[in-house]
């Protein structure tokens, strides 16, 4: 009993065990976030919910900056695998995953020049990094800030500036390079006057200023164009949201109308179903009554069939007794035939022996007479005539015997024919169920058997008469 209780675990124990297992493996927060995200997605995708989503308050700074801030936070949460917080933050902020800004959008919004070191560093590090754009941007900003509170800045003769993120060694190395270049230039142009150098320096400064102005104008155009694009995109998104809300409201109205029509159709179908059920009930009752009458008829027919079967069984018993009687009579006829045949064979053997003895005696007498006296021609002639008469009698007797054999063969054929006819009649008795016809066939068979018996009796009488006459 204890082992069976240990094996059978209740639902509460299973739930607690699964909870502790997921918590120990660190899967609990991930499962919570997945379930919450799936629940929110299904609630949003369901069209039957009439709950109006809570409007998100947009600060006065502009919807683009608000969207960019939300995108930064969402990107940071996604990169750090804060799935549960991300699933809570996205619905609360009112944006979806497809509305998040990309890295290039962030850089254009911050007006970072594409050729700058910060732009290149962020673009190069983000694809293979596990941190988000916010983390990389903070890292770049902290690395670009000066290490101390003060910094010595020297005035250079040319207007070029060092990159702010360069180290002290790089700055000193660049100063040395510029000094060597200027020294070479001064050595090459030592013949020029101070005015020429001032004019050339002024031209260089003007050209550098014009190029800087052009760069600033181009950068401003790019950033403004990007800002305008983003604002236009945001405006388009708002219009699409408004249009989607209008379409959802229209579809909701149509859905309500369709639901009302569906309810009406269901009510009509229910009424029709009730009417059909009543009709089916009436038809079922009628069919049950018909089935009851059919069962009664079947019972009556079964009783009649049983009575007929009993009558047929009685008739079959009678026919079997009749067949047995016929078989007994056939056996008696067969015994009589065998007896007659034996007696006929015996009589024929006796007659042959007698004729043979008489013939031997006649031959002996003739030999004796021939040996005794040839002169007794007259007696010999008489004996010859007597012999001729005996031969004729023998021939007649042989012919009578052959006739008797033919009669016996005819009788055998009649008996075989009677046997075959009896078999045919028995097959007919099995196939036919008419009692009157069966009786007629039995009477006919009886008459044929009587005629066969009479023929046998007549043949026996004829045989006795022939035997007595001989």
Short key terms for the protein model shown above:
470 residues, mainly alpha, 12 helices, Oral-facial-digital syndrome 1 protein homolog, OFD1, coiled coil, LisH
Brief digest:
The chain has 470 residues and is mostly helical. It is built from twelve helices and no strands.
Could you outline the blueprint of secondary structure elements for this entry?
Layout lengths: L1 H6 L3 H15 L2 H18 L17 H17 L3 H11 L9 H7 L7 H9 L7 H12 L23 H21 L5 H179 L4 H55 L3 H35 L1
Helix pairs in contact: 3-5, 4-5, 7-8, 10-11, 10-12, 11-12
Protein name: Oral-facial-digital syndrome 1 protein homolog
Keywords: Coiled coil
Pfam families: LisH_2
Please describe what this structure looks like:
It contains 12 helices and no strands. α7 packs antiparallel against α8 and α10 packs parallel to α12 (435-469). It has helices spanning 2-7, 11-25, 28-45, 63-79, 83-93, 103-109, 117-125, 133-144, 168-188, 194-372, 377-431, 435-469. It is mainly alpha-helical. Residues 1-7, 47-53, 58-62 and 148-166 have low confidence and may be disordered.
* H-E string: HHHHHHHHHHHH
Fraction in helix? over 70%
Overall 3D geometry? elongated
Please report which band the strand proportion falls in: under 5%, 5-15%, 15-25%, 25-35%, 35-45% or over 45%: under 5%
| Rg | 70 Å
List segments where confidence is low: pLDDT < 50 over at least 5 consecutive residues: 1-7, 47-53, 58-62, 148-166
> Helix count, per DSSP?
12
What's the end-to-end separation, in Å?
115 Å
Structural class comes to mainly alpha
Number of strands: 0
Overall mean pLDDT: 74
Major β-sheet profile: none
């Amino acid at each position: 009993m204890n082992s069976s209780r240990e094996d059978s675990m209740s639902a509460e124990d299973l739930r607690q065990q699964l909870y502790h297992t997921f918590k120990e493996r660190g899967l609990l927060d991930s499962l919570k976030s997945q379930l919450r995200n799936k629940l929110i997605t299904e609630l949003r995708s369901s069209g039957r919910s009439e709950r109006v989503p809570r409007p998100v308050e947009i600060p006065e700074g502009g919807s683009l900056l608000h969207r960019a801030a939300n995108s930064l936070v969402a990107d940071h949460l996604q990169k750090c695998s804060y799935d549960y917080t991300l699933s809570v933050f996205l619905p609360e902020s009112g944006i979806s995953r497809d509305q998040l800004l990309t890295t290039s959008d962030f850089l254009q919004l911050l007006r970072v020049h594409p050729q700058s070191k910060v732009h290149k560093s962020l673009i190069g590090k983000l694809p293979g990094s596990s941190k988000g754009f916010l983390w990389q941007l903070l890292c770049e900003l902290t690395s670009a800030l000066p290490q101390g509170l003060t910094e010595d800045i020297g005035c250079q003769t040319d207007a070029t500036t060092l990159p702010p993120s360069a180290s002290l060694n790089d700055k000193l190395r660049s100063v040395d390079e510029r000094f060597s270049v200027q020294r070479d230039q001064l050595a090459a142009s030592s013949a020029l006057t101070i005015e020429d150098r001032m004019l050339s320096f002024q031209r260089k400064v003007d050209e550098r200023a014009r190029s800087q102005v052009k760069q600033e104008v181009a950068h401003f155009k790019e950033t403004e164009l990007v800002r305008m694009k983003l604002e236009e995109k945001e405006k388009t998104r708002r219009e699409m949201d408004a249009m989607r809300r209008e379409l959802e409201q229209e579809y909701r109205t149509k859905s309500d109308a369709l639901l009302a029509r569906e309810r009406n159709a269901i009510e009509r179908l229910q009424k029709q179903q009730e009417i059909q059920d009543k009709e089916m009930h009436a038809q079922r009752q009628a069919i049950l009554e018909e089935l009851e009458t059919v069962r009664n008829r079947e019972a009556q027919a079964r009783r009649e069939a049983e009575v007929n079967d009993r009558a047929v069984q009685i008739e079959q018993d009678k026919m079997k007794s009749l067949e047995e009687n016929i078989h007994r009579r056939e056996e008696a006829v067969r015994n009589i035939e065998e007896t007659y045949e034996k007696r006929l064979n015996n009589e024929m053997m006796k007659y042959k022996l007698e004729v043979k003895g008489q013939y031997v005696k006649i031959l002996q007498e003739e030999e004796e007479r021939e040996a005794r006296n040839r002169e007794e021609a007259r007696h010999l002639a008489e004996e010859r005539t007597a012999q001729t008469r005996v031969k004729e009698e023998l021939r007649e007797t042989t012919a009578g015997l052959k006739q008797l054999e033919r009669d016996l063969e005819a009788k055998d054929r009649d008996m075989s024919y009677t046997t075959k006819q009896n078999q045919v009649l028995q097959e007919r008795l099995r196939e036919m169920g008419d009692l009157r016809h069966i009786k007629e066939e039995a009477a006919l068979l009886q008459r044929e058997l009587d005629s066969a018996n009479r023929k046998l009796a007549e043949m026996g009488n004829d045989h006795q008469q022939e035997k007595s006459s001989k």
